[in-house]
Write a structure and sequence with these properties.
The complex is a heterodimer of chains A (402) and B (123). Chain A is of the alpha/beta class. Chain A is built from twelve helices and 13 strands. Classes of the chains: A alpha/beta (402), B alpha+beta (123). The complex binds pyridoxal-5'-phosphate. Pyridoxal-5'-phosphate (PLP) binds next to helix 3 of chain A.
């Protein structure tokens, strides 16, 4: 543990770059390295950089069992989501203008769909069940003759629940519309086999998987072909889908990060799951703790808990020696509770009391034990001051929490 | 969260004065409340008057951002020795200035002010 800095338990916000990744990246920057423009066809500087980028592309493709030609580099999952959704909406605009997505998607999907909505597309916003999952039947019921793209994430970034993208994909295939999946939080954490999954486009981010920020990719299926209009023009890079000089170091970093993930995923996920269970067990003595999202269909590294009678903002400050995030984006008047938790039907009080704990590659047992002790102390202290946990309110708060 | 919380705020937040409630039915205790679960913050202030009619002691309970807790704590110290009448026009906004709350947190002193004025209201 680092005595100076808070204990990092926010691996779903971002991850530190793995030193093995940083080493590969730094080989692509300076004069003695592969600094050439990967598009330069007239000398070996270009060829060397291009070879590294293509190796990285193959590494990204390998993690998800795709063809390297199906991987388009982007600046991150946000851009990949934009390209997949706007790109499909524009390509198919004469065929139909209906999109299906969910209220619990990442803002990269939500804001993109809202933007299209303001420009005349119709969007169906599915409400997930109380377990946080969107079901294939909900998608089927929402499809119309006008539907051209469905966007449902694989793993939710706040509550960590896993959607059944195979089942949702089947529904989309049968209907003949494109299916986009935001896999920023699942690549490298869950097995993904795009040879078998009926998914047309899939967004990835490097920095959730120990790679650099500002790097990502979009999988664009070749057979049957996913059709997209480009958002960024100029130079025709990436088969015309995303122009701009490739960032060799970023691609190489993402490739190395995904290579490591492919090699270490089963063992690493087992270890992280054990840490999460250890943490949950340590906190199980505390009353009024509510798990947000499905109890088992969730990614190993995530635990999203609501503490009845305690405000998430105060709890975060009481726990400022831990780096965590809260579901409540407390920047409006009295703090707007998490839209994801509200969509799950949580009361405002419980949505406001939610904390996301996320564990990763460098989390240790000692850290998890320390964090659990600190959380229990802070919750007890704040509850002693809380009118929602005092006298008669205690029964209501407990009931809400159970 | 308030990463930029100043030392006074952290002091009141980490070591709140007057946290909790007087025993039920304690004589001379008056209570005021403001906010709600739905509003995302809530505070309760209790005032105990002595024989001379002045505030002898005070308690608070609060659910909300750290600023809410710190304001309420500050108030329980400040009210001591004051008259109920003077508290009916108390300006917690001014009192809370040293906490240097960011503009989006200024609902906190206003809510505490409502609870305090309500506790001090004429019966
Ligand atoms: C589910 C999900 N989608 C998209 C993003 C955005 O990714 P990026 O930061 O690479 O743009 C994130 C992370 O912030 C995420 O968790």
């Amino acid at each position: 543990m680092d005595a100076q800095r808070p204990l990092y338990l926010d691996y779903m916000a971002t991850t530190p770059v793995d030193p093995r990744v940083a080493a590969r990246m730094s080989e692509c920057l300076t004069r003695d390295g592969a600094f050439g423009n990967p598009a330069s066809a007239t000398h070996t500087y270009g060829a060397d950089a291009s070879a590294l980028v293509e190796t990285a592309r193959a590494q990204v493709a390998a993690l998800v069992n795709a063809d390297p030609r199906e991987i388009v580099w982007t600046s991150g999952a946000t851009e990949a989501d934009n390209l997949a959704i706007k790109g499909a909406a524009w390509f198919h605009e004469n065929r139909g203008r209906h999109i299906v997505t969910s209220r619990t998607e990442h803002k990269a999907v939500i804001d993109t769909c809202r933007w299209l909505e303001r420009r005349g597309w119709t969007v169906t916003w599915l409400e997930p069940g109380a377990d946080g999952r969107v079901e294939a039947e909900q998608v089927r019921d929402a499809l119309t003759a006008e539907t051209i793209v469905v966007a449902i994430m694989h793993v939710n970034n706040e509550i960590g629940v896993i959607n059944d993208i195979a089942a949702i994909g089947e529904v989309c295939r049968a209907h003949g519309c494109q299916f986009h999946v935001d896999a920023a939080q699942s690549a490298g954490k869950l097995p993904l086999d795009l040879q078998r999954l009926p998914v047309d486009t899939m967004a990835f981010s490097a920095h959730k998987t120990y790679g650099p920020k500002g790097a990502g990719a979009l999988f664009v299926r070749r057979e049957p072909r996913a059709r997209l209009e480009a958002l960024i023009h100029g130079g025709g890079h990436e088969r015309g889908l995303r122009s701009g000089t490739l960032a060799t170091h970023q691609a190489v970093g993402m490739g190395e990060a995904f290579r490591i993930a492919a090699a270490e995923m089963p063992e690493e996920q087992r270890r992280i799951l054990a840490l999460r269970e250890r943490f949950a067990t340590a906190l199980s003595k505390l009353p009024g703790v509510h798990l947000n999202g499905h109890p088992t269909e969730r990614v190993a590294g995530n635990l999203n808990l609501s503490f009845a009678g305690v405000h998430g903002d105060a709890l975060l400050l009481a726990l400022r020696d831990l780096a965590l995030s809260t579901g409540s984006a407390c920047n409006s008047a009295a703090g707007a509770p998490s839209y994801v938790l509200r969509a799950l039907g949580r009361s405002d009080a419980l949505a406001n009391a939610s904390i996301r704990f996320s564990f990763g590659r460098w989390t240790t047992e000692a850290e998890v034990d320390h964090a659990a002790t600190r959380v229990a102390e802070a919750v007890d202290r704040l509850r002693a001051l809380s009118p929602l946990w005092g006298d008669t309110a205690i029964d209501t708060a407990r009931k809400v929490a159970s | 969260m308030m990463l930029d919380a100043n030392a006074l705020l952290l002091d009141h937040f980490d070591r709140p004065r007057g946290g909790g409630a007087f025993p039920a039915g304690a004589p001379g205790v008056r209570r005021g409340e403001a906010g709600s679960e739905r509003h995302g913050a809530m505070v309760r202030i209790e005032l105990k008057t002595g024989a001379d009619g002045r505030i002898e002691d005070s308690r608070f309970s609060a659910w909300g951002c750290a600023g809410t807790l710190a304001c309420a704590s500050l108030v329980t110290e400040w009210v001591r020795g004051r008259t109920l009448e003077s508290l009916r026009t108390a300006e917690v906004r001014k009192l809370a200035e040293p906490l240097a709350l960011p503009p989006e947190r200024l609902y906190a002193p206003l809510m505490v002010e409502d609870a305090l004025r309500q506790a001090a209201r004429e019966d």
